[in-house]
From TrEMBL:
Residues 476-490 have a biased composition (Pro residues). Residues 491-529 have a biased composition (Low complexity). Keywords: Signal. InterPro entries: Glyco_hydro_71. CDD domains: GH71. Residues 1-24 form the signal peptide. It comes from Favolaschia claudopus. This is Carbohydrate-binding module family 24 protein.
C-alpha cells in the first residue's frame, strides 16, 4: 500500500511537464499541517451562551487541535464566538443528512453569513468549508453564493462526487469496514489505509483530509426511530491509525469525533454540556479523555512532519481501555434490541451488535515513556508483565471480570501504579450489551461525570429497573496493592503487539533472579502508588478540580488547584 502511494507521488513529481501537475505539487507543499475535530452541534441544544463552548475550545486547543468542524445550523453563532474568544478556529461541515444536495446556492449564502466572523478558519486566504456526504451538490452555485474565495473540502466519495470541482476531500471512514457501512467480513474487508489510497488517487495532488477515529459502537433499539446496532473493529485502532498517519502524512486530518456519544467515537469530555442523543445507556461512566492524551504526542509529531511520536513524549503515562463486559456475557433476557424495531436503514440487528466478533476480549494499554520500564497489566487478578521501551508502545492482555490495575516499574520499584475506577462486570450493566470502551490513565485523568442533560433519556426503553440516570463511577480507586517491580518469571515479549522492536528478552532474563516483595515499591518513588498525582493543569480540565485523593505536583509557580469538594461545575 505504502509502496504504491509512494509510486503515485513520485510519478506526480516526475510529470512536471504538465502545468496542472506542477500546480498540484505546489499546492500539496504549501499547506500547513492541520488537525481538525468533528463537533456535533445538534446535541448541544441545552447550551445557552457562547460561554458554554469555552471548555471544549480551550481543551481542544491545548491538545493541538486547530479547528472544530461544526456540523449543523443550531448554535453556530455561540461556537464561533467562543472560538474567537479562545484562540480557536472553526468551520462549517455541512451535514447532508440535514441539508440537501439541491441547496448549493442556499449553502453558499449561509456560509457567507459565517465566513466573515473572526474565528472562521482560512487557508491560503480561502474560507475553509467541509461536509458530511453531499456528492452531487452544485459546487459552482455554492461558490457564487458565498461571494468570496472558499476552500471546499467535502466528504465526496471517489466514483460518486465530482472531484474536479472541489479543493480537497474528507474521507469519513476511519474504521475498517465491509464497504457497506458494517464491520469487515471475510471477502469484504476494506482497511482504513485502502480508503486513504482510494481518496489519494481520486484527488490527484489535491489535499486529503484523512480520518482518525478511536472506536465505533452503537446500540439503539426500538426506543428511537433510527434503530441501529453495530460496531466497527476498535481494539487498537486508535494507536495503529495514529502510527499510520505519521507515515501517510496527509495534508489535514480530522478526529472523528469530539462528542458523538451515540456512536461512541467521542474524545471530548462527558461533562461538556450536552443533551442525550439516546446513547447515555452505553456512555454513562465511560470517559474517553485518556484517548486524547494518547493523541497528543502524535498530533505534535504529525505537525512537525516526524514519523515517530517518541520525541514529543515529555512525561511517563500509562493509557488503557477495555469494554465493561466480556463478549460471552449473555444479556438476551434484558437487552433492548431483542425485539423488532425500525430497520429502514438496514442497520438494525438483534442482540449483540453486528460485527461484535471483530473485537477481542482484551485490555489494551499504550505506554508513553521517557525511558524504558516494565509494565504490569492485572485484569481480574491475572497479571502479565511486559518490557516497555521508551516512546509509544501498545500492549494487550486477556480481560477478566474484576478489578483492572496498571503499573510501571523501573529498577524493581513502581513509578506509576493505580487501580482503574471501573471494574469489568459479570452482569449486564443497565441490562444491555455494551461494546463501548472505558478509558483511563496513570497518572489519573480528571474526573468526568456526565451532567443531567446528557442522561435524560437513559432509562428510555430499558428492561431493568436498576439503572439510574446518574454517574456512578467512584472519584478515586482503592489503593494499588498489586504486583509491579517484580521481574517477570518468563519473557512475554510475544504478547507485545506493536511493530516497534521489542526490547523484552535481554532485560527480563537479566533480572529474573531478584524478587523484591511487591510492597517495597511503595516506599520508594515520587508519584505515590495507589494514589494519584496531577502534574499538569490540563489533566484536570475542564473542571480544574483536583479529584479526591489526588496530590498536585505541577510546575513550580502554578498554584495548587482546588479539590472543589461537594460542588462541581457542569
Ligand atoms: C481484515 O483484514 C485485516 C488486515 O488485513 C485482518 O487483520 C482482519 O482479520 C480481516 N478481517 C476479516 C473479517 O477478514
Ligand atoms: C435489517 O436489515 C439488514 C439489511 O437488510 C439485515 O441484514 C438485518 O438482518 C435486518 N435486521 C433485522 C433485525 O431483521
Amino acid at each position: 500500500m505504502l509502496v504504491r502511494l509512494a509510486t503515485v507521488f513520485a510519478s506526480i513529481l516526475l510529470a512536471s511537464a504538465t502545468p496542472s501537475s506542477v500546480n498540484a505539487v505546489e499546492k500539496r507543499q504549501s499547506f500547513p499541517k492541520m488537525v481538525f475535530c468533528h463537533f456535533m452541534i445538534g446535541i448541544e441544544s441545552d447550551r445557552t451562551s457562547s460561554a458554554d463552548y469555552d471548555g471544549d475550545m480551550i481543551r481542544a486547543k491545548s491538545f493541538g487541535i486547530d479547528a472544530f468542524a461544526l456540523n449543523i445550523d443550531q448554535q453556530l453563532g455561540f461556537a464561533y464566538d467562543s472560538a474567537a474568544r479562545n484562540g480557536m478556529k472553526v468551520f462549517i461541515s455541512y451535514d447532508f443528512n440535514w441539508w440537501h444536495i439541491d441547496q448549493g446556492a442556499q449553502i453558499g449564502s449561509h456560509l457567507a453569513g459565517y465566513a466573515s466572523r473572526p474565528a472562521q478558519l482560512f487557508i491560503n486566504n480561502a474560507a475553509f468549508v467541509s461536509s458530511f456526504a453531499g456528492d452531487g451538490v452544485d459546487v459552482t452555485a455554492m461558490r457564487n453564493a458565498a461571494g468570496r474565495s472558499i476552500m471546499f473540502v467535502p466528504n465526496f466519495h471517489p466514483g460518486q462526487g465530482n472531484f474536479g470541482a472541489i479543493d480537497g476531500a474528507l474521507n469519513w471512514m476511519g474504521w475498517p469496514n465491509d464497504g457497506n457501512n458494517k464491520a469487515p467480513k471475510p471477502g469484504a474487508n476494506i482497511t482504513v489505509a485502502a480508503g486513504d489510497s482510494q481518496y489519494r488517487s481520486a484527488l490527484g495532488g489535491k489535499p486529503y483530509l484523512a480520518p482518525v477515529s478511536p472506536w465505533f459502537s452503537t446500540h439503539y433499539g426500538p426506543e428511537v426511530d433510527y434503530s441501529k446496532n453495530w460496531v466497527f473493529p476498535g481494539d487498537l485502532l486508535w494507536f495503529n491509525r495514529w502510527q499510520e498517519i505519521l507515515t501517510l502524512k496527509p495534508e489535514f486530518l480530522e478526529i472523528v469525533t469530539w462528542n458523538d456519544y451515540g456512536e461512541s467515537h467521542y474524545v471530548g469530555p462527558l461533562s461538556s454540556k450536552h443533551q442525550d442523543d439516546g446513547g447515555s445507556k452505553w456512555v454513562n461512566d465511560m470517559p474517553h479523555n485518556a484517548w486524547l492524551d494518547l493523541a497528543k504526542p502524535f498530533i505534535s509529531a504529525y505537525k512537525a512532519g516526524a514519523s515517530s511520536p517518541n520525541s514529543f513524549i515529555t512525561s511517563d503515562q500509562i493509557i488503557y481501555w477495555y469494554r465493561p463486559t466480556l463478549t460471552n456475557l449473555n444479556c438476551d433476557a434484558t437487552d433492548t434490541t431483542l425485539v423488532p424495531a425500525n430497520n429502514n436503514s438496514g442497520n438494525y440487528f438483534m442482540g449483540r451488535p453486528d460485527g461484535y466478533q471483530s473485537m477481542q476480549d482484551a485490555v489494551f494499554v499504550v505506554t508513553l515513556l521517557t525511558s524504558p520500564g516494565q509494565l504490569t497489566i492485572t485484569s481480574g487478578g491475572h497479571s502479565q508483565i511486559f518490557n516497555a521501551p521508551a516512546g509509544a508502545t501498545a500492549f494487550q492482555a486477556p480481560m477478566f471480570v474484576g478489578q483492572q490495575s496498571f503499573a510501571l516499574s523501573r529498577n524493581g520499584a513502581n513509578v506509576l501504579a493505580a487501580n482503574s475506577l471501573k471494574d469489568i462486570s459479570s452482569i449486564c450493566i443497565c441490562g444491555i450489551y455494551n461494546f463501548n470502551a472505558y478509558t483511563g490513565s496513570v497518572p489519573a485523568n480528571f474526573v468526568d461525570p456526565m451532567g443531567p442533560d446528557g442522561l435524560n433519556r437513559l432509562v428510555e426503553g430499558l428492561h431493568v429497573q436498576t439503572c439510574q440516570p446518574t454517574p456512578s463511577l467512584p472519584t478515586s480507586a482503592p489503593p494499588y496493592t498489586g504486583p509491579g517491580g517484580v521481574p517477570p518469571p518468563t519473557s512475554v515479549s510475544s504478547s507485545t503487539i506493536t511493530s516497534q522492536p521489542a526490547s523484552s528478552t535481554s532485560r527480563s532474563s537479566s533480572s529474573a533472579s531478584t524478587t523484591p516483595p511487591p510492597s517495597s515499591s511503595t516506599s520508594n518513588t515520587t508519584p505515590p502508588t495507589g494514589g494519584c498525582t496531577i502534574t499538569a493543569s490540563e489533566q484536570i480540565r475542564p473542571t480544574n478540580c483536583m479529584p479526591k485523593g489526588c496530590v498536585w505536583a505541577g510546575p513550580p509557580g502554578q498554584s495548587t488547584p482546588d479539590h472543589c469538594d461537594g460542588s462541581r461545575r457542569r
